[in-house]
Write a structure and sequence with these properties.
The chain has 346 residues and is an alpha+beta fold. The chain contains eight helices and nine strands.
Amino acid sequence: MAIRINHAVIRGWIDNTTPGETRGGLELIGFKRPLQLILRGNCRRDLAGTRLDFVNPNPIAQPELAGSLHYLHRGVVGEMTVSQRVKVPLISSMEFDEYLEQHKEIPFAWHNSIYLEWFSLTNGRVVIEAASFDLKLSIHKWELDHRADNIQKIENEQTIDHFLDILQHTHDAESHVSADLGGEVDEYEWEKRLRVKDSLEEAVMFLGSDRNEVEEEIDEAEEELMQTRFGLVRRSFRLQNEVMLYLGNSYLDHGPRGELAMAVAYIFNMMDEAWPESEAELEVGYRIAMLKRAIDASIAAISSCNTLEMEDDAFASMRVDIFVIRDEMISLKHHLREQNDVNPNE
């Protein structure tokens, strides 16, 4: 079900001058600050490549929005156009009711309507639809022809479907999280919470830039800082650097090289979060859940090394290093369980 906010809009803008990215701002009655839109995708042909500014000459408060509408909307573009044709009655609302009661034909005229639809992480589908807004459209910085516009419509629909699938996975994961637990929780509850985190991270990655990220060189200061970190953090960091330096650009491959790079990076990320630099007092169950994820990643990394060893002996040495880290993580997991008096049910 869509959240329709056109009555409460005072003024706003939509900017699609950067291909593949649509941004916007909206001032609404009853809201202390403007809503911000950061969306993936392009508008339809009439708006693509332009900035649209609009003003509602007769804004009306919608109190039901106050407790539900968020200020930041990260998501994807739906249908965005100012060329939608709609029937607009030529009589007042009071006359409209009278005409209906008397079964009289209602006079109307066709007008162009602004139609702005988007799907956000926080509020799902949101729509602005109005034929009375005052509009100001900039010149096109880039344009879509008719064929490109049809392709854009299909791409938007596919993007929306993918985004909604991610949101559904997030809601499904959230439904398994216990809401009434007080105090510290065990590793199994943390695994449920981490599945929600995974879905949200997938959504953020999906909404991010499609540009390939450039690999950053290892900084000497970072290496020096690692000397004070927890042992598994240091070792997984060095393993990641060793693997990435050896793979070079081949870490982008979709085969075992790419899988190895992803696995060792995941191991380090899990250890870095479970034993952060700040020495935060984290729950034992959380750390066990992170260890279990890192252990699974180490098994995937070992499998990749087994495949790659057939063409390069260097991966046999890497596999040994991963085995050492994996065994250390398993020992630590058992130690933490004993320390926390947790009975595993795997």
